[in-house]
Amino acid sequence: MAMASFKSKLAYSSGNLSVNLIAQAFASYIVFYYVDVLGVKPTLISLAMVIHGIVNAVLNPLFGHISDRTSSRFGRRIPYMLFGMVPLVALFTAIWFPVGTGSALFWYFLTIVLLYDIMFVMVVLNYSALFPEMFTTMKERATVSSWRQMFGILGMIIGVALPPLVYANMGWGPMGAIFAGIALIFFIVMVSASKEKIVVSREEVGFVQSLKFTFSNKAFVLFVIGSFFVQFTFAMLPAAIPFFTKYVLGAEDSSNTILLGAIFVAAIPCVYIWGKLLQRWGPRMTVMIAVSIYALATIPFLFVSSVATAAMAAVVIGIGLAGLLVLLDVLLSEIIDEDEKQTNVRREGMYFGMNGFIVKWGISLQAVVLGVVLEATGYVKDAVQAEAAVWGIRSMLSFIPFIALLVALLFFYLYPIRPTNTITKSGAVTHSND
After folding, report:
1. What is the DSSP string of 350-380?
2. What pLDDT is attached to residue 431?
3. Per residue, what are the HEC states of 304-332?
4. What is the pLDDT of residue 432?
5. Domains in the chain, start-ordered, CATH in brackets?
6. CA distances (Å), 122 to each of 33, 56, 351, in order?
7. What's phi and psi for 422, nearest 5 deg?
8. Hey, how many other C-beta atoms are within 10 angstroms of the C-beta on 89?
9. H or E stretch covering 429
10. 194 DSSP 8-state letter
11. Would you say 393 and 242 are in contact if contact means Cβ atoms under 8 Å apart?
12. Measuring CA to CA, which residue among 143, 91, 94, 97 is closest to residue 119?
């Protein structure tokens, strides 16, 4: 397959802005909107969000398997993105235009969210699965992954930072419609640039057999366990920061924005640097360095006592986090290449789907850990915290993610693929040592 042009690399990468924009806006504000603004019982919305998490996780491998088995003149991935992106943004908009009151509003929320899950997984899974197929050399993957994460971080910033400004001036419904419009524009740009290569062979075995093949791949198992612990820390940090600024630093809510902003602002230029380091050192070595930097950056949260020093530590977290954002999909792409070499079948859908299924539980683990730590250390809402509670909150930004990242580092160290893999025009896999 010929090298992709810079224009197509940029256009494909821009789709990540749409993905992160709607995902972050949904994750950050939907519970607040339905509970605090609309007055739905918190227990009902919590139940809906648990169902949402389970359904979203299960849909990932299922849709991945279906995508791998698809055969059409448009390819395996593009039809799902092409026909799914408009319903996806329409359902995202509908979430912010509630219908009914009381229990009827809960059922409306649950119904729209589940339909949204179906469309989100359909579009985003196939978008991700196209990455190793469209970009076949390590250089291309490093470049495109860097661009994808730059767009992705911009999407995160828009989805997290802008909603209060927009809904305060225009209302929640118009905010949802505006964000959906932005997402649709970038989805269209992305799909217009997407091209699938001629597949060596499509998946023919059943779902259960495909699962067995996936988990018999040692490299994938080691990767996905490491990725799980990394994703757990990704979820833990933003969840713990509001407690940290309020009860440890005694700062205003605006300090949350400063700390999260320090992470994101530091990450944007660093994704480019990590892309270059990836080409020099290879995926395994580079991801180990990124995890190490990220882990070391959590240590200062054991003792920092001002917003300024916390922001400095957050900058270093952003440096390490940027590397992991760039590297995780590259590592998974390398595993898919190796799998094709062994089986003559490309199964991007199942691999990305199972990865999505497993790392989703990292977010659930974060919620459990946060609740257990706060309860066990005697946290009291809106009070001066006891010393044990302060240390508990500090541990959620330092000791706990540090241990999780050490575990991730061990599994990435054991990751067995050492060469750089590329795919020739004929579809064969070639190897060259880093």
Report:
1. HHHHHHHHHHHHHHHHHHHHHHHHHHHTT--
2. 41
3. CCCHHHHHHHHHHHHHHHHHHHHHHHHHH
4. 44
5. 1-199 (1.20.1250.20), 207-417 (1.20.1250.20)
6. 26, 10, 15
7. -135, 160
8. 25
9. strand 429-432
10. -
11. no
12. 91
Question: Which one-letter amino acid corresponds to residue 434?
Answer: D
Nearest alpha carbon to residue 412 among 302, 282, 301: 282
Give CA–CA dist 133/202, Å, rounded: 13
Rg (CA), the chain: 21
Which pLDDT belongs to residue 234? Answer: 87
- Alpha-carbon gap, residue 223 to 352, rounded angstroms: 12
Q: What is the pLDDT of residues 160-197, one digit of tens each?
A: 878 878 888 899 999 999 999 999 999 999 999 888 77
At 423 the three-state DSSP class reads strand
Q: Is 159 helix (H, G, I), strand (E, B) or coil?
A: helix
Distances in Å between the alpha carbon of 114 and those of 290, 293, 389? 35, 38, 37
What CA–CA distances, in Å, run from 11 to 14, 16, 134, 192, 325? Answer: 5, 10, 12, 8, 19
Are 267 and 405 within 8 A, CB to CB?
no
Query: Is the distance from CB of 407 to CB of 288 less than 8 angstroms?
Result: no
284 — phi, psi (to 5°)?
A: -65, -50
Residue 104, φ and ψ in degrees, nearest 5: -60, -35
Q: Rounded CA gap, 150 and 267, in Å?
A: 8
The count of other CB atoms within 10 Å of the CB of residue 166 is: 17
pLDDT, tens digit, for every residue of 239-263?
788 889 888 998 887 788 888 889 9
Beta bridge partners of 422: 430
* Nearest Cα to Cα of residue 360 among 110, 35, 23, 44: 23
Q: How far is CA 296 from CA 45, 97, 320, in A?
A: 37, 44, 9
Rounded Cα–Cα distance for residues 77 and 124 (Å)? 10
- Could you please report the per-residue DSSP string of 88-124? HHHHHHHHTS--SSTHHHHHHHHHHHHHHHHHHHHHH
Q: Do residues 1 and 132 touch, judged by C-beta distance below 8 A?
A: no
Name the token pair of 301: 């949260």
Distance CA 110, CA 30 (A): 12
